[in-house]
Amino acid sequence: MSAPFINHHQIEAGRTNRACVLVWQLKHPWGTQTECAKALNLSPMAVNRHVKAIREEWRLTAAGVGA
C-alpha cells in the first residue's frame, strides 16, 4: 500500500491563509466572515474552516492542552 499524496504547496497555502484570516479578524473584531472572505479573496467556506480551526486552537490553549 502506498503512502497518500501530500501536496506541500497546498498545506503551506492553508497555513498562510489561516494566518491572514487571524490577522484580519484581530484587526476587524466586528467584521463578518463574508467580509473577511471578500477582503482576502477567499471563499466564505474556506474562511469558516479557518475560523473554526483558530477557535479550536484557542480553546485547547486555554484548556492547557498541548501547551
- Which residues sit in consecutive blocks of at least 5 with pLDDT less than 50? none
How many helices does DSSP assign? 3
Could you spell the SSE succession in H and E letters?
Answer: HHH
Shape: flat
Secondary-structure content class: mainly alpha
- How many E strands? 0
Portion in beta strands: under 5%
Percentage of residues assigned to helices: over 70%
What does the main sheet amount to? none
> What's the gyration radius in Å?
14 Å
How would you sum up this structure in a few lines?
With 67 residues, this protein is an all-alpha fold. The chain has helices at residues 8-27, 33-40, 44-63.
Notable traits:
single chain, mainly alpha, 72% helix, 67 residues, flat
Describe this structure in words.
- With 67 residues, this protein is mainly α.
- The protein has a domain at 31-67.
- It is 72% helix and 0% strand.
- It contains three helices and no strands.
- The protein has helices at residues 8-27, 33-40, 44-63.
- Helix 2 (33-40) packs across helix 3 (44-63).
- The longest helix is centred in the N-terminal third of the chain and has 20 residues, at 8-27.
- It is flat, with a radius of gyration of 14 Å.
- The model has no long low-confidence stretch (mean pLDDT 89).
Write the layout of secondary structure elements.
Elements: H1 8-27, H2 33-40, H3 44-63
